[in-house]
């Protein structure tokens, strides 16, 4: 199949959607499909040399605690049109199409089978309830909707008035399962480690709860250590520790992708004490793939990934003493850890890209059965002068479409 | 009182806006109609494929199926000629019969999953069409022309997640 993937966020800024698009493209190519990606980026030079097309720059907008991006206008529209025309895709797969981004532009301009994946999750969104009806005429063109979690699906159902199949995010299980451990750390050593990964200065990630629990853990399990990986302000963290925890906590700082996998392979227990706001919990899948027993807060998303506690231990969110009990038990029992690690590995396989990509391909085949037409860039008149500007199906008047800025 | 010239301009602009809206809505309705038709063709194909695979299983591996085979054969026959034209009921019965099949058949499982996908996408297209056709202006101006209101196709394919199904589907 010829597949066009559209990423609305800047390719050269780290982010879940960007990684998802990159990994999906790689996996589909590995299965013998032709895949092209259209994405904005800060600098065109930051894009891979092949199969990725620059859609211009997106303007970051702070939204819901993270960054969304805004990109709209005639120059971007022309780039989209050219990409669609040159791509001759059987199916176009846009990500996060509701905000004004290159994904929405593709929905407006493309004619043919469109699949969309919704990543964002929230119980309610003021922006979407106001904006949903405005973009509805173009989102109607999407013939297959995918949500990465039940929460993303609920957002879609409640604000955009459609339904979606749930296909989770993928993880390269092999890349986490096999490889070296982080230098200086070894799973099963005499000084057992608990791992934490994430922005440690964000209260909703729950590190203070874990620190509170660790005070008990270091008393009862001599030599136990906590490894903290991620971004944040080290001084703030040290202020939180106090003299009793200071020697047992190691701050690793931000890790590269390779180091993150090595870190997850090295820890004896991985802990996600988040208090709220995780839509998916892909890091739990990564930890399970790396063979780490997982202890997590009982957020709905985590409970789903951990199969209600079958593939990892769930602890009431914010309950430091319960968390301490679970950690002490686990660090004291190698058998229990091995049992959890085995259950986790089995669960992680459900999220392997090889599995997930097959499900996404089934969606493509459902919206674009063999023999269906290709995606075109709107109602192009074949008699048009090919060198001239294309006439797209657009609600913008011609003078606006030819403006100077993208 | 405004001078008649500016009244004319206001009326003219309003008329132009209305025309633009009508043209745009007609485009949307045509597009949605195409989407519903395509989605139905795919759903129909997926259901027929599932029935064919089930029939093949009955023919080729009666020993594996045991007593479930006869029920499966009857269910397949029903989907070919649904009693009373109730295809949803017939397909539902086949889906249930397939769930009772003792042996795992990857082809049949794949066919079932694809029926689920196709049904969801078809119902999604129907929902979008109905939402637009419920709009008062569309109803009053009868922009949908002679096209009948598309029907949902409701079968239990086991694909429903824990979250409730979409907004109200009446109408």
Automatic annotation (TrEMBL), chain A:
Signal peptide: none annotated. One of its GO terms (biological process) is carbohydrate derivative biosynthetic process. CDD domains: GT4_PimA-like. It holds the Pfam family Glyco_transf_4. Keywords: Glycosyltransferase, Transferase. The keyword DNA repair does not apply. Residues 14-172 form the Glycosyltransferase subfamily 4-like N-terminal domain. GO terms for molecular function: glycosyltransferase activity. The keyword Glycosyltransferase applies. Residues 373-406 are annotated as: Disordered. It comes from the Bacteria. Gene3D superfamilies: Glycogen Phosphorylase B (3.40.50.2000). This is Phosphatidylinositol alpha-mannosyltransferase. It comes from Klenkia marina.
TrEMBL record, chain B:
InterPro entries: LemA-like_dom_sf. This is Uncharacterized conserved protein. It comes from the Bacteria. It comes from Klenkia marina. Keywords: Membrane, Transmembrane, Transmembrane helix. SUPFAM superfamilies: LemA-like. The chain crosses the membrane at residues 6-26.
